């Protein structure tokens, strides 16, 4: 999602993603409005998704003190049926809206090649990037995902930073449903 829709500097969003700080109420509203316009929330669960995001931000953010306003959320324009359908089809196959925007990337060509080899040649299903905070694991992962997305049937990026257990369960079940639609054997 272009940061121009949210109206903040890319470093602010990177700070939110890294957990170093959480957005103000106005910034969070702008972020939610941009996600809503893109049809990024679970159909029929939009208000619950947003209320959960807001509750997490209230719990973890020092700047946010106002409660979630369901009247404000209901007043947001929603995408039309055809836009939702098209967004839904695209979202089932590739959704990098939560992936951080890479402002700069230096070096790491060896690590990039290794990850590409593991994912494409070795067909690894899970790769863990481990290390101390601040060494660029998320940036490296985002770079690999953006470079290799076309190589896979489906690519999803879900940030679990500043989120509760419901977000992890929701992300898992949404991905699981994309691969195993209701009524099909899992």
Give structural notes.
The protein has a two-stranded parallel ribbon. The longest helix is centred in the first third of the chain and has 15 residues, at 46-60. α6 (109-121) crosses α7 (137-148). It starts with 9 loop residues before the first helix and ends in a 7-residue tail after the last helix. It has helices spanning 10-18, 25-37, 46-60, 70-74, 81-93, 109-121, 137-148, 165-179; strands at 94-95, 155-156. It is built from 8 helices and 2 strands, in the order αααααβααβα.
Number of domains: 1
Number of strands: 2
Number of helices: 8
- What level of helicity do the residues show? 40-55%
Distance between the termini: 32 Å
Q: Give me the Rg, rounded.
A: 17 Å
**What portion of the residues fall into strands of 2 or more residues?**
under 5%
The major beta sheet can be summarized as: 2 strands, parallel
Within the largest sheet, what's the order of strands?
1-2
Class per helix and strand makeup: mainly alpha
Fold topology:
Blueprint: H1 10-18, H2 25-37, H3 46-60, H4 70-74, H5 81-93, E1 94-95, H6 109-121, H7 137-148, E2 155-156, H8 165-179
Helix pairs in contact: 6-7
What are the salient characteristics of this protein?
mainly alpha, 2 strands
Task: Give a quick summary of the entry.
51% of the residues lie in helices and 2% in strands. It has 186 residues and is an all-alpha fold.
């Amino acid at each position: 999602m272009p940061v121009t829709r949210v109206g903040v500097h890319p470093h602010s969003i990177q700070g939110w993603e890294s957990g170093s700080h959480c957005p103000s109420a106005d910034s969070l509203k702008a972020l939610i409005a941009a996600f809503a316009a893109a049809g990024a929330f679970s159909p029929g669960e939009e208000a619950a998704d947003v209320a959960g995001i807001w509750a997490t931000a209230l719990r973890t953010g020092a700047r946010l003190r106002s409660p979630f306003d369901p009247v404000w959320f209901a007043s947001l324009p929603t995408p039309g049926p055809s836009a939702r359908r098209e967004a839904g089809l695209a979202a089932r196959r590739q959704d990098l809206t939560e992936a951080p925007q890479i402002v700069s990337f230096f070096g790491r060509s060896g690590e990039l090649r290794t990850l590409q080899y593991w994912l494409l040649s070795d067909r690894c299903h899970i790769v863990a990037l481990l290390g101390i905070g601040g060494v660029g694991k998320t940036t490296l992962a985002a770079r690999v995902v953006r470079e290799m997305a076309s190589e896979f049937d489906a690519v999803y990026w879900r940030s679990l930073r500043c989120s509760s257990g419901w977000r992890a369960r929701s992300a898992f079940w949404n991905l699981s449903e994309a691969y195993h639609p209701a009524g099909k054997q899992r």
